[in-house]
Amino acid sequence: MKTDTIAAIATAMTNSGIGIVRMSGDETFEIIQKIYKGKKEKYFQEEKGYTIHYGYIVDGEETIDEVLVMIMRGPHSFTGENTVEINCHGGVYVMKRILETVIKYGARPAEPGEFTKRAFLNGRMDLSQAEAVIDVIHSKNEYALKSSVSQLKGTVHQKIKKIREEILYHTAFIETALDDPEHISVDGYGGELKVVVDKLLEELKALLISSDNGRIIKEGIKTVIVGKPNAGKSSLLNVLVGEDRAIVTDIEGTTRDVLEESIQLQGISLNIMDTAGIRNTEDIVEKIGVDKAKEHANEADLIIYVVDASRNLDENDMEIIQMIQDKKAVILLNKSDLATVVSKDMLKSYIEKPMIEISAKEESGIKELEQTLKDMFFHGDISFNDEVYITNIRHKAAIQDAYDSLEKVNMSIENNMPEDFYSIDLLDAYESLGSITGETIGEDLVNEIFSKFCMGK
Ligand code: GDP
Question: Is 425's pLDDT higher than 70?
């Protein structure tokens, strides 16, 4: 089947050193042939893949830019098709002119994500890997990048494939046995199947649990800082965002009215909720009793409770201690540079949480805080070699569906239902998991997934 040739600017639409205009499809080499002029005559149809050609992009008599043209021959290219990347000067205008030229000579503008969509449709990668491409681009921290690259390399794909194969094997066995009862007996098969289903349920459960970490890896730890007035909350925030240690960016929160400040600490992101109630730190204690503040604390993955260790605990502290009893929290005994009256032991009689002595003023104890957070959320360090992390909500939902279906299989076994009941739910689980790799989803969903990609990717 002949595919049309698509083209897009693959680099950012801003003036920079180098820009890349990318083209993929059956007519790629014919088009570049018409608009390339080098010292020597070239026939791109016959040039080797992975070669670079120095020359000019021309439109008839007009020279547009001096370029390097890289050619990749399908199927050994990202999309699996013949592909050309034109490295030109990175001006917005010149990139647009080159794009216009390739379009004039037969390409059409690519949709967002269309190159990756083609890679998926041409079997170069499964859907989970295609989705990892965009996750790599959007990675905001070291862990997010590592987990996305691991997914790109196919860890999720492999894991899901293995589980699906097992499900399919047993479904096929049941179907065959039911078709041929004279030769294949399903007597006692329920018990055998239950062992398999239990094992699969366990594997899926582990993936679901990993998705909690996965979200935190990808999006950061939703954090709220609490403490009575003058405990040192703003000072702490300043130290955390301060100088070379952190990059501060404004990112959109999950709800529309909440903005979060994202702080990068050694590869993990803390998204400090920056709501009216929380930004106005002087108000925090008054608002502690108010539902809104509780709501934020409830939604948080982490509460950082700053205690002023130079002053006695008071009713504000008690109220906060009450509020965070059941939450994931870390307690910072601040102002350790002063004479202190609050000790860890004293606090321990009220609450059991990790405690660290810090001084926001002298910036001490911050390394310990970082290590404590890593231990709390990632159990030390994350290994991406042997563990699969589910970071994608769509994948998580599909795994949950598969999990539910397999539970139904177990229920049918327990209730001694006929064997075809097993296979119906086994097949449902098989289908749900197939939506992760893209084998069982419709064109609409595929289009929707790729429409969220960047232009030129
Ligand atoms: P907030 O109301 O909780 O945000 O507290 P601030 O960060 O505004 O700090 C209140 C006061 O405590 C300020 O005068 C800070 O300079 C001071 N402060 C904060 N942290 C420390 C610390 O670690 N040591 C000392 N000595 N003073 C601190």
Answer: yes
Residues 158-200 have pLDDT tens digits of 999 999 999 999 999 999 998 888 888 888 889 999 999 999 9
Considering the four listed CATH numbers 3.40.50.1010, 3.40.50.300, 3.40.50.1110, 3.40.50.150, the one that applies to the domain covering 221-378 is 3.40.50.300
Structure confidence by residue, pLDDT tens digits, 311-364:
999 988 998 899 899 889 999 999 999 999 999 999 999 999 999 999 999 999
Q: Which protein residues are within 6 Å of ligand 1, measured from CB?
A: 227, 229-235, 281, 334-335, 337-338, 359-361
Question: Tell me: the pLDDT tens digits for 96-110?
Answer: 999 999 999 999 999
- Provide the residue ranges of all domains of the chain, joining segments of one domain with +: 6-110, 132-215+392-450, 221-378
DSSP-based three-state secondary structure for 438: coil
| CATH class of domain segment(s) 6-110 | alpha beta
CATH number of the structural domain 132-215+392-450: 1.20.120.430
How far is it, in rounded angstroms, from Cα 341 to Cα 338? 9
What is the spatial distance between Cα 85 and Cα 117, in angstroms, rounded to a whole number?
18
Give the CA diameter of the chain.
Answer: 86
Nearest CA to ligand 1 atom 6: 232
Q: Which long-range contacts (CB under 8 A, 24 or more apart) does 315-320 make?
A: 316/228, 316/285, 316/288, 317/228, 318/350, 319/285, 319/288, 319/289, 320/226, 320/227, 320/228, 320/285, 320/288
DSSP states along 221-289: EEEEEE-STTSSHHHHHHHHH-GGG---EEEE-SSTT-EEEEEEETTEEEEEEE-HHHHSGGGHHHHHT
**132-215+392-450 against 221-378: fold identical:** no
pLDDT of residue 136: 92
Q: Probe ligand 1: pick from 235, 240, 304, 362, max atoms within 8 Å of CB?
A: 235
Calculate how far, in angstroms, residue 316's C-alpha sits from the geometric centre of ligand 1. 17
Pocket-testing residue among 224, 225, 230, 310, ligand 1, by greatest number of atoms within 8 A of Cβ? 230
